[in-house]
Fold this sequence. Notes:
Layout: E1 3-10, H1 12-20, H2 24-34, E2 38-44, E3 51-56, H3 60-71, E4 76-83, H4 86-93, H5 109-130, E5 131-137, E6 150-153, H6 160-167, H7 170-173, E7 176-181, H8 182-185, H9 193-200, E8 202-205, H10 215-222, E9 226-229, H11 247-255, E10 259-265, H12 267-270, E11 281-287, H13 299-314
Parallel strand pairs: 5-11, 6-9, 6-10, 7-8, 7-9
Antiparallel strand pairs: 1-3, 1-4, 2-3, 10-11
Helix pairs in contact: 10-11, 11-13
Amino acid sequence: MPxxxxxxxxxxxxxxxxxxxxxxxxxxxxxVKHLGGKIVRQYAVLGEYDFVTFIEAADNTAIAxxxxxxxxxxxLTMETLPAVEIDRFQKLLKIEPYRTEPHRWxxxxxxxxxxxxxxxxxxxxxxxxYCRPFEVEGTENLRGFKGGAIVIxxxxxxxxxxxxxxxxxxxxxxxxxxxxxxxxxxxxxxxRTWWYSLFMNTFPVxxxxxxxxxxxxxxxxxxxxxxxxxPEGGRSKSxxxxxxxxxxxxxxxxxxxxxxxxxxxxxxxxMPKGQREPRPAAVSARIGAPVSLDGVASVPEAxxxxxxxMRGLAGIAPRRSAAEAPAxxxxxxxxxxxx
Length: 339
């Protein structure tokens, strides 16, 4: 049963009663028991209050009844405080401020049907309105491609996801999930987290969660789904391709999945970092050939290979050779990463 802390202050008349009849305290114990409660411990204390009593009662209503009955004696005042065990309290403190588990229903047939019907309104119309013109190059690189893949794109704007999804052929777009930063898109106070999972097909990723964050997307890849990830992490302020994190390489090597690079140009003119409202501008998306990591010896080598594939689409020189790549960091870079 719940425990309550009862602080009691005696009035002068009550002090006189206790002096004349010390058994009065035992009578109070019996009265509490009669009312459905149980005194677990009781202490006489120095200070503002005279007694501190720990009482077990069925609920708030029961403890209120006990307090009201005892107070009718008119010889004392009481203050009742609900108590929470410290272990339970610590668990309450550790409640995640955002959702960390994916909505399992988002890969179901009904969700796919609703998503396919709703995406032209939720995504397509905004791409048409603000990406003028919108050009897609390299679709021939995906001709005949089937199965799950990891799609990676450079990250310069929150508009990246709608544009990347719009650039993909329907057969891939209709079966792709988007890794989204849990703290940004799945906050506990947000009321429409289901909206992102349903229409954008996002799933929450806890930044800094390590390799455990790879388990769900790897399971999806093995089931034939594709995953959209931004390997740079945070959005680029300059618009240039940034250093890749190793999460994509680890995931691709674990799942045996190819990686499809897409370079997007022009979105910093549509919705740069720090701007809340988009504005029309020319946008282009260049799709590269799927990159296989079969036979690649190490994660750093694989990461360097993927980064240079993206830089090639951007028309810039490779950043470094595989030998110069840093040691592996098991990090997953979700959509909306960075501040």
